Hints:
Elements: E1 12-13, H1 16-23, H2 28-42, H3 47-61, E2 66-73, E3 76-82, H4 93-108, E4 112-114, E5 123-124, H5 126-134, E6 139-147, E7 150-159, H6 167-190, H7 194-210, H8 215-233, E8 235-248, E9 252-255, E10 260-265, E11 272-273, E12 278-282, H9 285-310, H10 314-339, E13 342-344, E14 349-353, E15 363-364, E16 369-374, E17 379-386, E18 398-403, E19 411-425, E20 428-437, E21 449-460, H11 461-480
Helix pairs in contact: 1-6, 2-3, 2-6, 3-6, 4-5, 9-10
Amino acid sequence: xxxxxxxxxxxxxxxxxxxxxxxxxxxxxxxxxxxxxxxxxxxxxxxxxxxxxxxxxxxxxxxxxxxxxxxxxxxxxxxxxxxxxxxxxxxxxxxxxxxxxxxxxxxxxxxxxxxxxxxxxxxxxxxxxxxxxxxxxxxxxxxxxxxxxxxxxxxxxxxxxxxxxxxxxxxxxxxxxxxxxxxxxxxxxxxxxxxxxxxxxxxxxxxxxxxxxxxxxxxxxxxxxxxxxxxxxxxxxxxxxxxxxxxxxxxxxxxxxxxxxxxxxxxxxxxxxxxxxxxxxxxxxxxxxxxxxxxxxxxxxxxxxxxxxxxxxxxxxxxxxxxxxxxxxxxxxxxxxxxxxxxxxxxxxxxxxxxxxxxxxxxxxxxxxxxxxxxxxxxxxxxxxxxxxxxxxxxxxxxxxxxxxxxxxxxxxxxxxxxxxxxxxxxxxxxxxxxxxxxxxxxxxxxxxxxxxxxxxxxxxxxxxxxxxxxxxxxxxxxxxx
Length: 482
């Protein structure tokens, strides 16, 4: 039924004040009945039994069709007992209308009678009107229950339409409510479960700590709560921090072409070179002597070849022809090796490794790395990301880095590759992540180190500050769980 429509003057009723004046008249026999009723309730096993016994006895003594008792749970009343009913469904519309009428009486802090009397003080009773109409007409009287300075519940009395409630009945019911209210509160508190007891204890402690009597603690508590909410719901950009080192985007290796000795060193690490520049030269004496020997050997074979050809010795001609070809091949090989003794820069760039200026005359073996050259101005960033953060990194993410040599500048980077290569340092495992520089700076040199931060998305502040500790706790819990 819609409670927002057809609200007439009947939606107003008397307050408890004029009626309580009538109720202050002495009535010894009825007071004695209230005391006996309270004693009988105390003899019950628990609150539920006491409440059922109370509503049944009141229905008989006050000559009502139905009486219900509800106790307040939080901000609303929950029905506890209904006369002549051992059980009920709290989700039915009738029960909801009953508890709404009890809430209304508690909110008004007054006895509410519906329909109201003509000379009664006007107060709103919308819920009572709805309860009466839902049952096709009903006379209702609701009395709030008090314990000390708080309202703990209500008793709702119902009679058929137009029978009403006289002053003596209301007086008796109010006295019973005054006497039985504290008793029901104590029994109801004893019946609480463990969770409800804990919740009530926390609420009482909260009032003691943050009540008006201690404004400093109250302000501190509210501030902590506001900060907690702020950190829990305010998003911020989360960045993964890692140590970085600058490397060239590519490297060209210059190795010793043959076994030999260092003769000349024109360049060293840190020097800029252009393609074709002479970097170093190996000693060529041994190879030149070998070339002379091969040339002499070839000349001897050629003379023998001509002599055999003149004598028409075909078998010998064929053998000498093969030996001459072998000598030519060896001579070409030595000539090629002589040409490689001069180490020429293959590209424009910077020598990032290799200094032979202090090694003139020292021997080198074929394949020894003598120099490393990296293209100038083209670098890649190597980030050593902790294993706890590697799952946050994705290709294409952006960030910034600051180098120790130029800490005032922030250089933009973009993640280009995530390698499965890991390394251990100081008890931690790090993964190698490659990134590209999107800003250029002439001061950057290969080998520079610094700190990089990669943007991985928005996260709540409380997650940002606590996720690593929570991850450790989860891992420890998993380790200890049997």
